[in-house]
Amino acid sequence: xxxxxxxxxxxxxxxxxxxxxxxxxxxxxxxxxxxxxxxxxxxxxxxxxxxxxxxxxxxxxxxxxxxxxxxxxxxxxxxxxxxxxxxxxxxxxxxxxxxxxxxxxxxxxxxxxxxxxxxxxxxxxxxxxxxxxxxxxxxxxxxxxxxxxxxxxxxxxxxxxxxxxxxxxxxxxxxxxxxxxxxxxxxxxxxxxxxxxxxxxxxxxxxxxxxxxxxxxxxxxxxxxxxxxxxxxxxxxxxxxxxxxxxxxxxxxxxxxxxxxxxxxxxxxxxxxxxxxxxxxxxx
Length: 284
Prior knowledge:
The chain is an all-alpha fold. The chain has a single domain (13-278), classed as MetI-like fold. It has helices at 3-12, 14-31, 74-110, 112-126, 130-141, 145-171, 175-182, 187-195, 200-223, 235-242, 251-278.
């Protein structure tokens, strides 16, 4: 696709523009937060518990979004939690993408017994509810970020495997693949130089669509106390901690809840926009 056509599609896709603007804003706010936050995200002060939002009354030095039941600044914990969630989402998309792409390419290229074994494992994986599997793994191995990434890899690789396998099966008998075999190229070289570049488009689309799912999965696990270990902030754990005070201090739940909704919605919009832009069937 030409650069001019790509830019035209980007500008035309409302989903992509909206999702990109919000995602860039959230990412910049999260990763530049150490430059402007003044409160400690894990330091508690019971003398300042459940202070209502002051917005801009006292500037950045005040409690813009209020405090929680432990006297911790919600704004500071929010931006810190977003940074942690985005880092986990990046790794939680990249790791299963690498695993799934490798297995899908092998299954689709070689077929036969290898394909049957990989796809039957994939079917077994898909038959188990995602959250049940995630909770089981976290309960067995314990609560930590590496184990959380392990969970995300286990629950996420199947989608990439199925997509890449289907794409590879569609091109494995193409003339350029046969020509490479005639010229003596090894299977590994053909997979890396000929096959993988052809599956990059559906792979990029899927990865962009999975970011919101990974963020939501991490938040769900943190809400249950099986995600980001305390006292590190997470949107899910912030919602869980504030639910007891929803009647008397609703900001402790509403702020992280709305933030989570906006982030997931933004990345879903971004994923849909990337699909519309890169889909070769889209002629608009």
